[in-house]
Amino acid sequence: MPSNLVKTVVISSNGTVTVSPPDSDQLFLAIDPNTGNIIGSFFNAAIHKNVTLNGLLLQSDSSGAGLFQGTNRTGFFTLVPGP
Do 56 and 65 contact (CB within 8 A), yes or no? Predict the structure, then answer.
């Protein structure tokens, strides 16, 4: 992926994630509140495809991280609490 995505997300108690601002990257995230599993996807304009991502939300510090596969390399994402 040629650049970073920086988004604000709000996570509800049922795992629904609201992403702002919505954009052409079509970032979608959902969290299983029982396990902390994160699933999602985004549109990668460089390869003209949706890319799936997977990760975990850690209850201990309210942060999360995960991975996604590009065409020839792996990328990562992080979720961190706001100020």
Answer: yes
The larger pLDDT score, comparing residue 54 to residue 15, is at: 54
**Confidence (pLDDT) at 83:** 77
- Classify residue 67: in a domain, yes or no: yes
Query: How many Cβ atoms from other residues are within 10 Å of residue 57's Cβ?
Result: 21
Residues 11-32: tens digit of each pLDDT = 888 989 999 888 889 999 999 9
| CA 33/CA 45 separation, integer angstroms | 30
pTM equals 0.85
Domain count, the chain: 1
What b-and-e string marks burial along 9-35, b requiring 16 or more CB atoms within 10 Å of the CB? eebeeebebebeeeeebebebebeeee
